[in-house]
Write a structure and sequence with these properties.
This protein is of the alpha+beta class and 63 residues long. It is built from two helices and three strands. The chain has helices spanning 33-39, 57-61; strands at 18-22, 27-31, 45-50. The protein has a three-stranded antiparallel β-sheet with strand order 2-1-3. The protein is elongated and about 40 Å long.
Length: 63
C-alpha cells in the first residue's frame, strides 16, 4: 500500500479517517479514503465506519 503524507496546520481541517471492520472481527483503524476504496472490493470487508474528527490537544494547551 502506498504511504500518504499529510502536512496540516492547526487551523486546517484534518483529513477524514475511517475504520474498516472485517468479517473475522479484525479492525483497521485510521484509514484514509484511498485505503477504503482499495478494500471495497474485498469480500472479507463487512463494514466501513466513519471516525469523528480528531481534536488536537496540544493546540488547547498553548497560550
Amino acid at each position: 500500500m502506498v504511504a500518504q503524507y499529510f502536512r496540516s496546520r492547526l487551523n486546517e481541517p484534518q483529513p477524514q479517517r475511517f475504520t474498516l471492520v472485517f468479517r473475522n472481527g479484525e479492525l483497521l483503524r485510521h484509514q484514509d479514503p484511498l485505503a477504503v476504496a482499495q478494500y471495497l472490493a474485498d469480500a472479507r470487508l463487512a463494514e466501513v465506519r466513519s471516525e469523528p474528527p480528531r481534536r488536537r490537544a496540544a493546540a488547547s494547551q498553548i497560550e
